[in-house]
Design brief:
The complex is a heterodimer of chains A (331) and B (332). By secondary structure, chain A is of the alpha+beta class. Helices cover 39% and strands 10% of the residues of chain A. In chain A, strands 2-1-3-4 form a 4-stranded antiparallel beta sheet.
Chain lengths: 331, 332
């Protein structure tokens, strides 16, 4: 990873750690010490178009989450210590299970029964994670293409136990039916979410992906998995991050807005989308999701979509940094 | 590394290239510690969402137009797999092998098939697994995936049967079932009761695909009549006769209802009728085009809680459905 930005970010992180751990130190004083410098570095990285950007954003949200208590301190402490002394892009190597799957439980919203979990995953992720469950080898073959045809015909479902919206198979968001109807790109319920628009709004970038069996470099296949979930609380049970892994590589985000106690979620790390404030778009960090037993086939739509034609990092970076810095300034 | 093309390692000497790949695959984040191969190209930095195997696949694709370079990557991967990475001191052999198999599968390096056949036959790596993203994958499942995808499973029926029957932890039952169905349909028919233990979406699809591949006419021909009889005896074996109806009845929650749907998808109409369930008859009709009855499997339930509680009678005949229905309704 090139550029001095990442080294400086690590140095800032180390100073933040040292300041809050020093005798008489506090999170507030530590934050005061590093806030301006953190912002300056983030802006510099953004302006330079460095691939360090997602990590800079992640770092800001980690500091924000720590300072606001959204991320439990013991977990944040361990994550910070782990990251200390490593290049900033070591974020991606953070052992999630050890550090971020232990978030506090949360209360359920009264409307939890209406919750729908959604995940937009690409075909490559689908074949790796699900093909064999249907008895189809995951290597390119005619059988794999037949599996896709079955998927397009709506003949496939997956078992409730395998609904892992919190995995790294795709980007995930949670919403309820009302919000989805009013805020989804085209309106309507999950079945009518336009995967191309969802891809755009989520700032996914599958342009680097090579589909080993698909010669069309500009097009990829995508599957929208949406399934009613029984318990929202379960989804926020742990800090399961990242969500927009493929698009951003961001490991720790903060919530778009703070919600009152009793609403969901109140104690976890969340992801905030760089392009939109729409309520239906990703805000959750998730652990194991419990799908409603016997729910209908969760694959609500699939099809081909055009990959991002441009560099999403440059396109979305400014908005992402500005939002992160705004959060930093608010605390 | 910013460029998607990183061909320096391809130009290394053959053994050095293999060595470099082993080190990189052992710990793809090795740049954290610095390379211990000072005279070799530095390790690339993986992008978000990228893993060592996808990175190598991308290199394979990138050098597609450069004469001989794809072969070099292929040779290195094949060499490492066929030697099981035993020529190098590594910390995570299973992990490396697993990722190399992912590369071989994605890039079609079928040169390793014979090696994999040996592993499958000898029951090697039955406890091995590797990590891919957040998932832990049994090595044998990937071995089967490659062999089946490449149609290299001839003579492996005993191994398929073993992993299908005895190794649920491998998660390769569906793969093995469909392949066994291709190689030995009769055995697969007899194993159908076993698949009912899987989540319903998976056994439905596996059964539908098996029947489609085999062809319904072939599947329900006289050649497999005894196999089907055995299958349905097993379905109802050890089931309290009073619960047979619940098990087989064509209702939403019954296996029978799901079977009717699956058969219908492959163009075979069928009906299941249960009468006096703790005494007498469950009749399973298979109908071909129109209403002609192709097969009939009749179950007589004699006494509760006995391994011999269920006996099956079966016959194949061609007659109109009404006549078959009357026959079914008559006391056995």
């Amino acid at each position: 990873m090139s550029g001095g930005g990442s080294e400086r970010l690590v140095a800032v992180l180390q100073r933040f750690n040292a300041a809050r751990a020093a005798p008489g130190g506090s999170t507030t004083s530590a934050l005061r010490l590093v806030r301006a410098e953190l912002a300056a570095i983030a802006r510099e990285i953004q302006a330079g178009g460095s691939e360090d950007l997602p990590y800079a954003v992640s770092l800001i949200y980690l500091v924000v989450g720590y300072s606001t208590g959204v991320i439990p301190h013991d977990i944040a402490d361990r994550a910070l210590l782990w990251l200390q002394g490593r290049p900033v892009w070591a974020w991606r190597s953070l052992p999630l299970e050890d550090f971020v799957l232990q978030g506090a439980d949360v209360l359920e919203s009264p409307s939890s029964s209406l919750m729908i979990g959604c995940s937009l995953m690409n075909w490559d992720a689908f074949r790796k994670h699900y093909a064999e469950k249907f008895g189809v080898p995951k290597v390119p073959s005619a059988k794999l293409e037949k599996l896709w045809e079955s998927l397009e015909e709506g003949n496939l479902g997956i078992a409730d136990a395998d609904v892992d919206l919190g995995g790294t198979n795709g980007v995930v968001w949670f919403t309820d039916r009302d919000a989805l109807e009013t805020s989804s790109p085209r309106g309507g319920v999950a079945e009518s979410v336009d995967i191309q628009q969802a891809y755009e709004l989520l700032a996914l970038d599958w342009s680097k992906q090579w589909e080993y069996h698909d010669g069309n470099a500009g097009v990829t296949r995508s599957i929208l998995l949406s399934v009613p979930i029984t318990r929202r609380a379960r989804s926020a049970h742990g800090l399961r991050v990242p969500t927009a892994l493929e698009g951003w590589g961001c490991l720790l985000f903060a919530p778009k807005r703070s919600r009152g106690s009793g609403d969901w979620p109140v104690a976890a790390g969340f992801t905030s989308h760089p392009l939109t404030e729409a309520d239906c778009l990703p805000e959750a960090v998730h652990g194991t999701i419990t799908a409603i037993p016997g729910a209908e086939s969760p694959f609500s739509s699939c099809g081909r979509l055009a990959k991002a034609p441009r560099d999403r990092l440059a396109e979305c970076g400014k908005v992402a940094v500005e939002r992160a810095l705004q959060r930093l300034a608010e605390i | 590394m910013d460029s998607p093309l990183y061909s320096a390692f391809v130009d290394l000497d053959e053994l050095d290239r293999a060595h470099w790949l082993v080190r990189f695959f052992d710990w793809p984040s090795a740049a954290l510690r610095g390379s211990d191969l000072p005279n070799f190209p530095t390790f690339p930095t993986l992008r978000a969402g990228e893993t060592a195997d996808t990175w190598l696949c991308d290199q394979f694709k990138q050098v597609a137009q450069i004469l001989g370079k794809q072969d070099r990557i292929c040779r290195s991967v094949v060499l490492l797999i066929t030697t099981e990475v035993r020529n190098y001191q590594v910390e995570r052999r299973d992990q490396i092998l697993g990722l190399l198999l992912e590369v071989a599968g994605a890039c079609g390096f079928a040169e390793v098939a014979e090696t994999l056949r040996g592993w499958a036959r000898a029951d090697d790596y039955r406890h091995a697994s590797y990590r891919l993203g957040s998932e832990t994958i049994p090595l044998r499942r990937t071995i089967w995936s490659l062999l089946i995808g490449w149609n290299k499973t001839e003579d492996l029926i005993p191994a398929l049967r073993r992993d299908l029957s005895l190794r649920p932890e491998l998660g390769s039952e569906a793969l093995c079932f469909r392949e066994l169905g291709r190689l030995s349909p009769g055995e697969a028919i007899e194993l159908i009761p076993r698949i009912f233990g899987w989540p319903e979406p998976y056994w439905r699809e596996a059964l539908r695909a098996f029947l489609t591949d085999l062809g319904p006419d072939e599947a329900f021909s006289t050649a497999y009549l005894e196999r089907w009889k055995s299958c349905f005896v097993k379905v109802t074996e050890n089931v309290e006769p009073s619960r047979v109806e619940r098990l087989l009845a064509p209702r939403d929650w019954g296996v029978g209802g799901a079977l009717i749907e699956v058969f219908a998808k492959v163009g075979v109409g069928c009906s299941i009728e249960v009468r006096e369930p703790w005494r007498q008859v469950t009749l399973f009709h298979l109908r071909g085009s129109g209403d002609s009855v192709q097969g009939s499997l009749r179950f007589n339930v004699h006494s509760p809680w006995s391994r011999r509680a269920v006996e099956a009678q079966s016959e194949l005949y061609q007659q109109d459905f009404a006549r078959a229905y009357d026959a079914a309704a008559a006391p056995a």
